[in-house]
UniProtKB/TrEMBL annotation:
InterPro entries found in the cross-reference section: Tscrpt_reg_PadR_N, WH-like_DNA-bd_sf, WH_DNA-bd_sf
Coiled coil: none
Cross-referenced PANTHER family: TRANSCRIPTIONAL REGULATOR YQJI
Protein name: Transcription regulator PadR N-terminal domain-containing protein
SUPFAM superfamilies: Winged helix' DNA-binding domain
Organism: Alcaligenes pakistanensis
């Protein structure tokens, strides 16, 4: 099953003020986290923080309504435990997640990416970048400093070509499409 990246992109909202993810994206990500086992809402919020390196910590006002909606659809079971509620994924929820697996993978990758990006932004904004600091950022994110630098260089190169003629833009597109094809043809890592 091939999914349209624009469909997933519509689920992602801007990195600025306000909500970072749509209600639908939040529902999917919460259900993915519930695959780890039954838990309380607060624990789910902390998992978002952990996955995103504290770059995204959803509010209770985003999490609990999403969980309630999932419960009305039969995807999530809510059980009272005193004053707290325990949330778990139902069999119907698991089936629904299977049908949405590629979108879920993409959304969780975006959450992880945001966290890693923030770690490197903090590193770059630091007044002194020692080799130890770069190594710590690499260990925390799993990204090589050169991987981060090449992304920035590509953005800069694209910016520099933003006023180029249509012919030059076509040349840039051909170069980048070739690179994209080569990257996508690398064997998948598990």
């Amino acid at each position: 099953m091939k999914f349209n990246t624009m469909d997933v992109e519509r689920m992602l909202l801007d990195m600025g003020q306000g909500r970072k993810y749509s209600a639908r994206a939040m529902q999917l990500m919460l259900m993915v986290l519930l695959q780890e086992g039954s838990t309380h809402g607060y624990h789910l919020i902390r998992r978002f923080a952990q996955i995103s390196q504290n770059s995204y910590v959803p509010s209770a006002g985003a999490v609990y309504p999403a969980l309630a909606y999932c419960a009305t659809q039969g995807w999530v079971l809510i059980e009272e435990e005193g004053r707290r509620k325990m949330y778990s994924l139902t069999d119907e929820g698991r089936k629904y997640l299977e049908s949405q697996q590629e979108k879920c993978d993409y959304l969780l990758q975006s959450l992880t990416y945001r966290g890693r990006k923030l770690v490197w932004i903090r590193q770059m904004l630091a007044e002194h970048n020692s080799d130890e600091d770069l190594k710590a950022a690499q260990e925390q994110t799993g990204w090589l400093p050169e991987f981060v630098q090449i992304r920035h260089s590509l953005k800069q190169a694209m910016f520099e070509q933003s006023t180029a003629s249509l012919e030059r833009q076509a040349e840039v597109v051909a170069i980048l499409q070739n690179a994209i094809d080569q990257i996508r043809n690398l064997p998948k890592e598990s």
